[in-house]
Amino acid sequence: xxxxxxxxxxxxxxxxxxxxxxxxxxxxxxxxxxxxxxxxxxxxxxxxxxxxxxxxxxxxxxxxxxxxxxxxxxxxxxxxxxxxxxxxxxxxxxxxxxxxxxxxxxxxxxxxxxxxxxxxxxxxxxxxxxxxxxxxxxxxxxxxxxxxxxxxxxxxxxxxxxxxxxxxxxxxxxxxxxxxxxxxxxxxxxxxxxxxxxxxxxxxxxxxxxxxxxxxxxxxxxxxxxxxxxxxxxxxxxxxxxxxxxxxxxxxxxxxxxxxxxxxxxxxxxxxxxxxxxxxxxxxxxxxxxxxxxxxxxxxxxxxxxxxxxxxxxxxxxxxxxxxxxxxxxxxxxxxxxxxxxxxxxxxxxxxxxxxxxxxxxxxxxxxxxxxxxxxxxxxxxxxxxxxxxxxxxxxxxxxxxxxxxxxxxxxxxxxxxxxxxxxxxxxxxxxxxxxxxxxxxxxxxxxxxxxxxxxxxxxxxxxxxxxxxxxxxxxxxxxxxxxxxxxxxxxxxxxxxxxxxxxxxxxxxxxxxxxxxxxxxxxxxxxxxxxxxxxxxxxxxxxxxxxxxxxxxxxxxxxxxxxxxxxxxxxxxxxxxxxxxxxxxxxxxxxxxxxxxxxxxxxxxxxxxxxxxxxxxxxxxxxxxxxxxxxxxxxxxxxxxxxxxxxxxxxxxxxxxxxxxxxxxxxxxxxxxxxxxxxxxxxxxxxxxxxxxxxxxxxxxxxxxxxxxxxxxxxxxxxxxxxxxxxxxxxxxxxxxxxxxxxxxxxxxxxxxxxxxxxxxxxxxxxxxxxxxxxxxxxxxxxxxxxxxxxxxxxxxxxxxxxxxxxxxxxxxxxxxxxxxxxxxxxxxxxxxxxxxxxxxxxxxxxxxxxxxxxxxxxxxxxxxx
Length: 867
Fold this sequence. Notes:
Layout: E1 4-11, E2 18-20, E3 27-33, E4 40-48, E5 54-58, E6 78-87, E7 100-104, E8 118-120, E9 133-141, E10 147-155, E11 157-162, E12 165-166, E13 183-184, E14 186-189, E15 197-206, H1 208-211, E16 230-239, E17 242-247, E18 253-255, E19 260-264, E20 268-271, E21 293-294, E22 296-298, E23 306-307, E24 314-321, E25 324-327, E26 333-349, E27 356-362, E28 365-366, E29 369-370, E30 381-385, E31 391-394, E32 400-408, E33 422-429, E34 435-439, H2 442-458, E35 459-460, E36 462-463, H3 476-489, H4 493-506, H5 534-546, H6 549-566, H7 602-623, H8 627-648, H9 660-668, H10 675-691, H11 700-712, H12 716-723, H13 731-736, H14 772-779, E37 782-784, E38 791-794, E39 804-811, E40 814-823, E41 826-833, E42 838-841, E43 851-853, E44 856-863
Parallel strand pairs: 2-7, 13-23, 20-30, 38-42
Antiparallel strand pairs: 1-3, 4-5, 4-6, 6-7, 8-22, 9-15, 9-18, 10-14, 10-16, 11-12, 11-15, 16-17, 18-21, 19-20, 24-33, 25-26, 26-31, 26-32, 26-33, 27-30, 27-32, 28-29, 34-39, 35-36, 37-38, 39-40, 40-41, 41-44, 42-43
Helix pairs in contact: 3-5, 3-11, 3-14, 4-5, 4-6, 5-6, 6-7, 7-8, 7-9, 9-10, 9-11, 11-12
């Protein structure tokens, strides 16, 4: 018997709806079940507050981001919600969903009850690392505790403790934001950590992104947003008689020093447990008359910038066991974890007091030694000094990108160096995994595995370029290229919403910075194509995957400003030829010392993207119902296409740069005059690729569109040959070289195993992993038709001698599953369509017969099909 139920109820894009920033959060629900052709005709929402539950009925097929049905929630208010959906006509109804509780955070300055951002009386460090600080406050609660919430943030990164116990499981909190515009605070349920009687709250703060060194020009920049570490907290305790409020104010104390000597993002930590103040955050800790404790002072409190998070926090997500212990040619001990990852080590060690263990983290080996040159000025080195007692240690305010760790001075006589003593802890933004892919070719599976790992390591509160060297910045161009792949692999909607809000806030005269948050250590803000275009493209891609019109609405003004005023133009409306461009960055033929020297003109690339993003702004206007804007931008696209052809094409339709990127862009962006010109250009592109032995010839501008452009012109088999190539430059070259993440350069590691001599040699960059978008759409056969996957297409294109593939995607409506195989009988396809959606199915060799199907399970076959 067919079943239908609601598997999840969610609010806005929050994975955990505690302390959210929306007073009227929109509600979504996913379905589970195999009911055939099931569509929703209506739904009911029950909202339970302190009074009797309210019940609301709606005749609507909408089940994603539907409006909050009742009066707005106030600060710190919770409501329990459950949903029931009704089948259209005679279709069955769902049972009531499980009840889910949503709770708001703090909406105003007054809600913070005069909590301040407190610093220490200790003189702040100048042009040097800030030593982490402990803040402490002891208090009493003389009543039964019914509920307690901690609202907290910091100037820097914090860890909070109540009565000696760690609060929550966030790490590197509150993450990284454009602090001048949005300063995130976190909300924790701390009911179970408090006790009737004496209590204590402690906060440990390190410099993090807020005051630490960032960027690479002239050694980077310190104290970008402030030069003093601080903490801000509000603890609210509900009792039978009312509320007790404990806030950060002048009555707290701060430590002069502590066991964490230094904690830097690029350089790691130095930790000495002999300086530990045991039990410092417990209620019976005696700090009075201890000269290590000082008074505090009030810093400027960012009331106007305080916001609840849009995306999930950074957390410990998994652990990776030690795989092998190596001895280098010079006799050094090196740990190999078998996976290039992002996070830190956890040690369990005992040895002679004063022993100074040194841990140097790198991504690769160079002639058997740890390769530190790609780190540039970052050291990624931790030092742990042992005390009298056995020590369990892991980092607090730093992270590294590494596979290998060189260990010095390990007390081997007291503690065996093995998997019990050392484990790698993987950390990243705790996104929900929603997309999977697997096929008959193990090398492609490994590539896809590597792409996922590079995404995990670089989605660290913001979308960074790399996790290891003196950079780790929110480069807009990288995220532009990778966002469609990211949106399939994980639920990134809240993550992008927060980052895009920061991007919008950082625009100056319409120009977005190259990195968001903006960092002076990367140079002055400058308008450049692809990177600046992220203000349009990333918003549009997020809308496609989520269906959230509010994200478009929030970003539309910034997108318009970029197109209308941010881009410097010539008299034809194209890019000013003197404008700075990064162009087809890291073209495979670019020399190691000049990654921007591409075979395709950067001005040509910029103009092609200008036509594309102008069209996207027109689409945004159309979705938002702004008819005058839509007509304006559509006319602008027509004029820009004509200007592009005049500037860069011959009358016969040949482009000025007959390269892979030079042809991919006008093919994908529809810049040719007519279909014949485009088909002829696609054949020339095919010939260029064949003559290049199916090796990649594109950089940042062309790589993410290469496969899509070929498939658009029925040349998927050509791209299969490129994808399966194992010589450099290719995707599988990296796999053959034992990569476990995707690289920045096609040849970050040369064929002889030596390092590329250039500076740009990260071994964990997600940009070239943008090929996953083609893998999901063409091999997997899945792509949205309507924003938010209300309708989607299923059109796998077998090739490359693959005999089967399996792809799944957990859409806003429920799980989509596609599995196909080719055997002696022909082509076989199994499909699962979630309730309240429909799919357009196209089978190989039957492309003119498009079947539209509703929810349910389907099997199709094409007899006699063979590869």
